[in-house]
């Protein structure tokens, strides 16, 4: 069958008419398949949700027990039939529980990759390339300027700054789900054993990651209430990206603003946000990884969901790969 | 190159002066010669390279990249050197390696016009992203990292536990890569001996008159002069070499060729650079706004020379011929200076006149009502004081005219940097004006200091609780006749401005006081400010 008949963009999200389900819908629907727990992909209020166990756990943590009418766990590699459509979940390497979803009917297979990355991540299984007719990719960092450096070097710069400025609290902004835990795990991998302090918004998710066997070491709350003020000079404090612009960060000793994100590659971005130490650590593919993935999977057609789709589509043209943007709305351009 | 590139990356994003100094000191300690010397030169603006045109680096990238993809990338990043450094993909067979900064600079200096292209390409292939960025910024000649030559000298002083005046004195006799300077600073060598006699000498600075400070001083021990609103300069003519320096020792000779041409005064003099006419030519002294037309230029057009002729109002002399007369008392130096100026070009030099006074009260009155609008106060100099480098308290005082004050209404606020990144600490304020749609506020300035920490807490809370609109990092706050926040703004002067909607630009504005007792409707009007400038000239 023609791929557009199997899956197409509708106002509420990517829709499969034959199975009557949506993938990562941006509004409440009867039946949703969710790739991963980030809030622009996983929203509350659907009738029925099919996702990995971890993604369901994360949705429950974020939205409460009543986050959907009913749920079903999808195991990696297991085929699930929805009407005469078969779906299968594969690791996406983006955050804990993240999956690509392969949708297949009448000999046509489309892989919805959700958000994904190709680098090793101590907090989740690696991306698995799946042969398909249509590969649907994000393009968050879909511009030739994005070449993310090695994570180790970035973490080393953080540790160097701790030695250079021991009188300052190193306040790191990192997305609460995935980035924060990966960053902490990366810091631990480099042999840093001091306590790492976290903002309250990260507590439940970090605890959940630890319960899944991911080593985060000695983690403590950054704030203990007004009677127990600590200035945390020379310590690492991790909080959601917006937190260091807030009054919250004032209690710390001369806070040094750090932000862990793929966007930090662009100096002006860092400067605009008042970031002093940008750490280029991304949970998405950079340009080289995006293009290498497309070459590796070699789909007969590429659809691009969100990000800088025009550049990726142009690259596909030059490579002779049919490609088009899907113009889905509701996903955060910022991605991280 | 890696260490230098990392230093640049950090400096660009580090707002605090002391943190910048620490980064520089750490770098100077750890980087080898000659790399650190070239880094210093690049930062202080003394590095001469055959610069590469931006078009060339764009062409180099386009050799390997689709033009459309390049355009998307450049549009997104906005900076050519950064776009190229990020998008550059070295061929797989080239192993990345670090090239010492010293080697980069020396090869760029040696390369002929036809070799530059392939040299830059080769180095781009070998360096990593940050290294490529540093290379391109060096090669295109625009570092722009928010570090002045002055700050770099401060870092050198810190590195060697020396006074910054010692560095300034040596500075112009040394050249990149500054090996003897670093050896001296690290204690591995003697203080460098200058081939030419020291050319720039650190200037003597005054301290501000504090409350009641003059009461214990005898007026007859002091001479008074007007404090002119120009820039402090030092003019040297030693051994046939003529140089004009700013007060921090930056050479500005090429911006003032007319002064250099007639600088026949044998020795080193200290004075105020102004535009307009000297007293001896009986023409009016130009304002600071006029002088600004001549500042920060590498070269100067005929028209500017005619419209804004520069001159020096001299007030001290450090060397008379080869003789160092700094140890002589002020009144003796002044006598020598007077003779030197007498013999110099009357269009380009005059002597800063003394202001006769018999007691402090009389001088205070003169200070409040100076005879010329370009005067911003008085200077007091002890008659027996030698010329001392730097700022010591006692021999010289500056006693400025009181600042202007207006009441203005807070309109916009932006978050600060560094320590203040969680505070709304940069404020735009406005005054009332009558427009087509009735009375409204027009912004007249921006200030980010003057308040205490406690006052900042109050301002920050007001901004957070009264935001009416957000534009990126900027918040518009409530500013209506009966709801809003009034601040008293102090400033040193007003200029006409075509760049500002209000038509006025403040010099050195700061928030002097919070006025929670006032309503926005009680704030000043634009006409009040316009009257302070006076009629158009």
TrEMBL record, chain B:
Its EC number is 6.5.1.1. It comes from the Bacteria. GO terms for biological process: cell division; DNA recombination; DNA repair; DNA replication. It is an enzyme of class 6 (ligase). It holds the Pfam family DNA_ligase_A_N. GO terms for molecular function: ATP binding; DNA binding; DNA ligase (ATP) activity; metal ion binding. Residues 303-433 form the ATP-dependent DNA ligase family profile domain. SUPFAM superfamilies: DNA ligase/mRNA capping enzyme, catalytic domain, Nucleic acid-binding proteins. It catalyses: ATP + (deoxyribonucleotide)n-3'-hydroxyl + 5'-phospho-(deoxyribonucleotide)m = (deoxyribonucleotide)n+m + AMP + diphosphate. Keywords: ATP-binding, Cell cycle, Cell division, DNA damage, DNA recombination, DNA repair, DNA replication, Ligase, Magnesium, Metal-binding, Nucleotide-binding. PANTHER family: DNA LIGASE 1/3 FAMILY MEMBER, DNA LIGASE-RELATED. NCBIfam families: DNA_lig_bact, PRK09247.1. This is DNA ligase (ATP). It comes from Sinorhizobium medicae (strain WSM419) (Ensifer medicae).
């Amino acid at each position: 069958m023609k791929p557009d008949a199997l899956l197409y963009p509708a106002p509420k999200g990517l829709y499969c008419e034959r199975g009557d389900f949506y993938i990562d819908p941006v509004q409440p629907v009867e039946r949703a398949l969710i790739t991963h727990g980030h809030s622009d992909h996983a929203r509350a209020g659907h009738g029925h949700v099919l996702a990995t166990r971890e993604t369901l756990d994360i949705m429950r943590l974020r939205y409460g027990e009543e986050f959907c009418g009913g749920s079903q766990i999808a195991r990696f590699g297991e085929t699930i039939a929805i009407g005469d459509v078969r779906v299968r979940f594969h690791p996406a390497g983006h955050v804990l529980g993240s999956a690509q979803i392969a949708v297949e009917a009448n000999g046509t297979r489309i892989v919805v990759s959700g958000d994904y990355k190709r680098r090793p991540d101590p907090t989740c299984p690696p991306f698995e390339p799946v042969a398909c007719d249509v590969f649907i990719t994000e393009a968050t960092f879909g511009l030739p300027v994005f070449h993310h450096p090695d994570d180790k070097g970035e973490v080393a710069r953080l540790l160097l700054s701790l030695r250079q400025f021991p009188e300052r609290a190193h306040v790191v902004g990192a997305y609460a789900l995935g980035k924060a835990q990966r960053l902490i795990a990366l810091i631990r991998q480099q042999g840093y054993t001091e306590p790492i302090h976290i903002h309250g918004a990260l507590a439940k998710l970090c605890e959940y990651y630890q319960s899944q066997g991911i080593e985060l070491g000695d983690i403590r709350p950054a704030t203990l209430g007004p009677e127990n003020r600590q200035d945390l000079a020379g310590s690492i404090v991790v909080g959601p990206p917006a937190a260091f612009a807030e009054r919250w960060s004032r209690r710390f000793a001369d806070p040094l603003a750090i932000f862990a994100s793929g966007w930090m590659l662009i100096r002006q971005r860092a400067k605009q946000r008042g970031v002093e130490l940008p750490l280029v650590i991304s949970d998405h593919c950079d340009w080289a990884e995006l293009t290498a993935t497309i070459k590796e999977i070699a789909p007969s057609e590429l659809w691009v969901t969100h990000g800088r789709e025009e550049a990726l589509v142009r690259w596909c043209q030059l490579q002779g790969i049919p490609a088009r943007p899907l113009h889905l709305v509701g996903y955060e351009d910022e991605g991280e | 190159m890696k260490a230098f590139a990392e230093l640049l990356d950090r400096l660009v994003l580090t707002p605090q002066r002391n943190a910048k100094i620490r980064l520089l000191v750490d770098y100077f300690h750890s980087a080898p010669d000659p790399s650190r010397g070239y880094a210093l030169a690049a930062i202080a603006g003394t590095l001469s390279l055959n610069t590469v045109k931006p078009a060339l680096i764009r062409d180099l990238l386009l050799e390997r990249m689709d033009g459309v993809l390049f355009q998307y990338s450049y549009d997104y990043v906005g900076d050519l050197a950064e776009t190229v450094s990020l998008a550059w993909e070295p061929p797989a067979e080239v192993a990345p390696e670090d090239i010492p900064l010293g080697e980069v600079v020396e090869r760029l200096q040696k390369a002929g016009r036809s070799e530059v292209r392939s040299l830059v390409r080769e180095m781009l292939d070998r360096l990593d992203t940050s290294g490529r960025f540093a290379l391109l910024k060096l090669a295109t000649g625009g570092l722009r990292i928010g570090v002045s030559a002055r700050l770099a000298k401060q870092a050198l002083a810190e590195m060697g536990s020396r006074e910054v005046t010692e560095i300034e004195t040596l500075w112009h006799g040394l050249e990149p890569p500054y090996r003897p300077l670093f050896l001296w600073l690290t204690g591995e060598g003697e203080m460098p001996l200058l081939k030419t006699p020291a050319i720039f000498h650190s200037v003597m600075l005054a301290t501000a008159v504090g409350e009641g400070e003059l009461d214990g001083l005898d007026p007859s021990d002091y001479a008074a002069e007007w404090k002119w609103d120009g820039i402090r300069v030092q003019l040297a003519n030693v051994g046939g070499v003529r140089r004009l320096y700013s007060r921090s020792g930056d050479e500005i000779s090429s911006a003032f060729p007319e002064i250099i041409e007639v600088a026949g005064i044998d020795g080193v003099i200290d004075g105020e650079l102004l535009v307009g006419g000297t007293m001896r030519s009986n023409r009016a002294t130009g304002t600071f706004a006029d002088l600004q037309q001549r500042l920060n230029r590498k070269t100067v057009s005929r028209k500017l020379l005619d419209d804004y002729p520069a001159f020096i109002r001299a007030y001290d002399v450090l060397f008379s011929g080869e003789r160092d007369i700094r140890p002589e008392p002020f009144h003796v130096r002044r006598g020598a200076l007077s003779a030197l100026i007498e013999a110099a070009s009357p269009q380009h030099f005059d002597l800063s006149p003394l202001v006769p006074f018999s007691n402090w009260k009389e001088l205070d009155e003169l200070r409040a009502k100076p005879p010329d609008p370009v005067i911003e106060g008085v200077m007091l100099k002890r008659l027996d004081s030698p010329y001392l480098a730097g700022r010591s308290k006692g021999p010289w005082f500056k006693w400025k005219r009181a600042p202007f004050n207006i009441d203005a209404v807070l309109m916009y606020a932006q978050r600060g940097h560094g320590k203040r990144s969680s505070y709304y600490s940069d404020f735009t304020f406005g005054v009332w004006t009558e427009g087509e749609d009735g009375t409204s506020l027009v912004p007249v300035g921006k200030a980010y200091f003057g308040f205490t920490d406690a006052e900042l807490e109050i301002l920050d809370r007001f901004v957070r609780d009264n935001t009416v609109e957000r534009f990126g990092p900027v918040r518009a706050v409530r500013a209506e006749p009966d709801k809003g926040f009034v601040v008293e703004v102090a400033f040193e002067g007003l200029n006409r401005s075509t760049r500002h909607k209000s038509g006025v630009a403040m010099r050195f504005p700061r928030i002097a006081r919070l006025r929670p007792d006032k309503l926005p409707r009680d704030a000043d009007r634009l006409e009040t400010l316009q009257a302070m400038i006076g009629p158009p000239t």
